[in-house]
Amino acid sequence: MKLRSLSKYPFFLAAFSMIYLLPSCNSDSGDNKGGILSGISDAFSSEVSKEAMTKALSAQYTQTSDSAASPAAQLRNISTQVKAVYEKNDHKPIWLKGDKFSDQASGFINSLEQLKWDGLDPEKYQLSRLKKCLSASKATEDSLARWDILFTEAYVGAARDLTFGLINPAEIDKEWHADNDSTFTVVDDLAKLGTDKSATDLKNYRPLNPRYALMQKELQKWNGLKSDTAYIKQKSIVSTGDMAAAQYIIKKEISSTATDTNLIKAYQYLNHLSANGKIDVETIKTLQRSPDDYVRLLKINMERLRWLPNTMAGQYIWVSIPQTEIDYYKNGNNLFHNRSVVGSRTTRTPTILKPMQNIVICPPWTLPLSIVGKEYGGRIPSYYEVYSGGKRVPNGVVNASNYRKYTVRQPAGPRAALGYVKFNLPNQWDIYLHDTPGRYVFANKSRYLSHGCVRVKDPRTLAALILEDKNIGIDSINTMIAKNRTKQIPTDLIPVYITYTTANADSAFQNIIYLNDPYKKDSVLVAKFK
C-alpha cells in the first residue's frame, strides 16, 4: 500500500468539463461552418498525419498545463493525460486505422455502455457523440483528428473516474481520510491499443474490491425489478403480518432457500434489521422501499469504494462503521468475523486506511486531552496516573485551567479502558482497534458508543490469528495477559480499512447488506449524483 496521498483534486469539474468543449460530430466549428461532416466533399481517404493530430491538439488545448500543479493534480487532469498519450504515441492517431475507426473504437463504445452498472452515466463520456463519429462514412482529415481526440478524452475521463471516483471525497466528507494511491496506467494502456484489443475494456480500472463486483450485480437486479409490475403491486399492498405478500417480495429480492420464519430472518439480516422472523413495522417499511431507493444507495456506495485504492492486499482487516462489525481476511479466506463498537454520533469514527504495525498486550491508555477536559473537568480519578515531563506527579495538581500541561495515563489491568489487547495502526487521528472491559455492550443492536476508536469483540482470537506466523497462539497471549505486563509484538503491515459505506458485502461475499446511515452522510452524496 503506497503512502502518498492522491485524494485532493479540486480542479475536477474544470478538467472534466473540457470534454464538453470538443466539437461534436455534427457541430459547427471554425472554418468548418457547415458542421464537421460538411467536409465530405473533401473526403479524406488516407492515414491522418502527425501534423493534423498536432494541429488538433494545439487547437483543443490552447492553455499550457500548470507545471506547478501537484503530481496528484496532474495525474487526474484530463488534458495533461491526453497530451501525454499522444506524445507517447508519436502524435499518431489512437483510434483510427487509415481513414476509418478501428475495431478498438467499437469495443470502447461497448465498454462505455456498461458504465451504467458502475452507477455512472455513459453520456458523461460523450457516448452519443462517439456513436455518431463511428457511424460517419466520410470526413476531412481535420475532423478525423478531432474525433480521435474525442475518443481519447472519453477513455481518459472514464478510466479516471473508475480509478479515483467521480467526486472528490474531501469536498463532501471531512471525515474521509483514506488515501487512494492507485496507479493510473491510462497513458501506457492507450499507447498499446493498436496491438492489444483488450486495452479498450475499462474493467482494468474498476476496483478489485469484491464488494464492488457484488454491488454491480445488485444494481442490475434492482434495475430489472423496477419493471416487474406484479412485484411492485405487492410492495404497495403488503401490511403487518401479511406473510404471503412478504414472502413473495422477499423471494424476488434475495437469493435464499429458506422458508417462512427463516426466510424473514434472512431478509431482516440483509437489511440490518432485528432478525426476529416477524413481519413487524420496521420490516414492513423495508418491504415497501422502492427499487430506486436501493439503486441510489448502491450508486453512492460504489462511489465510496472508488475512493479507496483499486487493488487490495491478500491480507487485510475491514471494519464497517455503519454495520459495527469487523472482518479479517487472508488469502481470500475470512478468518475472523465479529461485532465491534464504533464512535458515537458526536464522537465519530473517521474513515481511514492505515497499516497495522504491532499488537500490544496489556496496553496502558493515555487519555486524550479532550476527554480529560470534557469528561473529568481536570479532576483526575485515583485510578489514573498523572505525569509531567515524564515524572509522576500527584493527581491533585491537575485542574480545569492547567490540565493541558499534563499527561494522564491509565495503567494496564482488568479495569483498563483498552482491555487486554490493542491493535496499533499509527495515524494522526489516534484511531486504533482494542479490547474493552465493558464487553456487555457487544450484545446491543446499536453500537455507536465509543470516542472514535474501534472496540473489538474477542480480540484475543483476532490477535492469535494475526500472530499465527510468529507461533504466538491464544495460550501464549493468555499467559502474557496473566502476567499483566505490557508487551508490544510487531506484526506484518496489514492494511486496516475503517470504512463508512451504507451497503456492504456479507463476510462470504455472497450478498449485499443494506445498512443504516448513523452519521447521516448519504444525503449529501445522493444530491451530488442527481
Per-chain topology:
Blueprint: H1 12-21, H2 50-60, H3 71-76, H4 78-88, E1 96-97, E2 100-101, H5 103-113, H6 127-135, H7 141-164, H8 186-191, H9 210-225, H10 229-237, H11 243-253, H12 260-270, H13 281-287, H14 291-306, E3 315-320, E4 325-330, E5 333-343, E6 352-361, E7 365-366, H15 369-374, E8 385-388, E9 391-393, E10 407-410, E11 421-424, E12 433-434, E13 448-450, E14 454-456, H16 459-466, H17 474-483, E15 487-499, E16 503-505, E17 512-514, H18 522-528
Parallel strand pairs: 3-15, 5-13, 12-14
Antiparallel strand pairs: 1-2, 3-4, 4-5, 5-14, 6-11, 6-15, 7-10, 8-9, 8-10, 11-12, 16-17
> How many structural domains can be distinguished in the coordinates?
4
Indicate the percent of residues in helices: 25-40%
Query: Quick check: average pLDDT?
Result: 88
Strand content: 15-25%
Count of helix runs: 18
Lateral arrangement of strands in the main beta sheet = 3-4-5-14-12-11-6-15
Give a short account of the largest sheet: 8 strands, mixed, barrel
Walk me through this protein's architecture:
The chain has four domains: 12-176 and 187-205, no CATH class; 227-289, no CATH class; 314-364 and 412-525, L,D-transpeptidase catalytic domain-like, CATH 2.40.440.10; 367-410, no CATH class. The protein is built from 18 helices and 17 strands. The longest helix is centred in the N-terminal third of the chain and has 24 residues, at 141-164. The protein has an eight-stranded mixed barrel. The protein has helices at 12-21, 50-60, 71-76, 78-88, 103-113, 127-135, 141-164, 186-191, 210-225, 229-237, 243-253, 260-270, 281-287, 291-306, 369-374, 459-466, 474-483, 522-528; strands spanning 96-97, 100-101, 315-320, 325-330, 333-343, 352-361, 365-366, 385-388, 391-393, 407-410, 421-424, 433-434, 448-450, 454-456, 487-499, 503-505, 512-514.
